[in-house]
């Protein structure tokens, strides 16, 4: 199946470069471009691409606001949002994840890293630049500990009550960034069994992907910012 991609960036040169990389890859096609967040929202709703590559800083409507608009709209939206930025700032990453983005990649990533990120996100998984994954999740959790209102989120006890003991074990390792294969080794389970547990966790908690599950684990206090 061909992966359809929309590119949203306010710099024409960046859009052209991203298009060239994506269209050079068999099985991927660029179906549209947008020069700001408002255009991106309209184009995504009209074209319904598999993946939207979204710059975080854009005029009129930034990438975070655009992602929030798309992910909070009526009914599930099929497009997965991969945020791109030159700004290595944790606050922007955290905002993008809370808005509903499925991944975050720095613009200094290689072409191979970009293509792999598109594949991963299109397949329903989530991806973060490796250098920021755990630090960002910990920052998001610390934000709640520093006084954010927790009334609208589950606490650790609630998550444990909604999941089986084994599912909690799997969630703790997902939150620490382990792959299904690595979780299988740690818990002495087949990778296929781990995959089933992850799918059950997402279904029970009403989450889109393993990244959102990791966020929920940190938010709830099930995993603490400085480990256990």
A few lines on this structure:
This protein has 228 residues and is an alpha/beta fold.
Question: Your description of this structure?
Answer:
- The chain is α/β, with parallel strands linked by helices and 228 residues long.
- It folds into two domains: 3-131, 3-Layer(aba) Sandwich (Rossmann fold); 151-220, Arc Repressor Mutant, subunit A (Orthogonal Bundle).
- It is built from eleven helices and six strands.
- A six-stranded parallel beta sheet has the order 2-1-3-4-5-6, with helices on both faces.
- Helix 5 links the parallel strand 5 and strand 6.
- Helix 2 packs parallel to helix 3.
- The longest helix has 15 residues, at 191-205.
- The termini are far apart.
Shape: globular
Order of helices and strands: EHEHEHEHEHEHHHHHH
Number of helices: 11
Rg result = 18 Å
| β-strand number | 6
State the share of residues found in helices, binned by percent. Answer: 40-55%
Strand content: 5-15%
Pfam families: GerE, Response_reg
Domain HTH luxR-type: 156-221
Organism: Catenulispora pinistramenti
Modified residues (4-aspartylphosphate): 55
Please describe the topology of this protein.
Blueprint: E1 3-8, H1 12-23, E2 28-34, H2 37-47, E3 51-55, H3 63-71, E4 80-85, H4 90-99, E5 103-106, H5 111-122, E6 127-128, H6 133-145, H7 156-162, H8 165-175, H9 180-187, H10 191-205, H11 210-220
Parallel strand pairs: 1-2, 1-3, 3-4, 4-5, 5-6
Helix pairs in contact: 2-3, 3-4, 4-6, 6-11, 8-10, 8-11, 9-10
């Amino acid at each position: 199946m061909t992966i359809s991609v929309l590119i949203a960036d306010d710099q024409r040169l960046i859009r052209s470069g991203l298009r060239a990389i994506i269209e050079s890859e068999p099985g991927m096609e660029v179906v549209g471009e947008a020069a700001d967040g408002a255009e991106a929202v309209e184009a995504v709703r009209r074209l319904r691409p598999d993946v939207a590559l979204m710059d975080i800083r854009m005029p009129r409507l930034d990438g975070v606001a655009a992602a929030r608009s798309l992910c909070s709209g009526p009914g599930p939206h099929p497009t997965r949002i991969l945020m791109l930025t030159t700004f290595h700032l944790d606050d922007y990453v955290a905002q993008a994840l809370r808005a509903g983005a499925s991944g975050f990649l720095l613009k200094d990533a290689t072409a191979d890293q970009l293509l792999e990120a598109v594949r991963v996100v299109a397949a329903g998984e989530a991806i973060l630049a490796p250098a920021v994954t755990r630090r960002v999740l910990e920052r998001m959790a610390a934000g709640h500990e520093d006084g954010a209102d927790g009334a609208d989120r589950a606490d650790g006890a609630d998550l444990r009550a909604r999941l089986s003991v084994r599912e909690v074990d799997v969630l703790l390792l997902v939150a620490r960034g382990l792959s299904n294969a690595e979780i299988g080794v740690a818990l002495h389970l087949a990778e296929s069994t781990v995959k089933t547990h992850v799918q059950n966790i997402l279904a029970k908690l009403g989450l889109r992907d393993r990244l959102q599950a990791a966020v929920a684990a940190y938010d709830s206090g099930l995993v603490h910012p400085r480990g256990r």
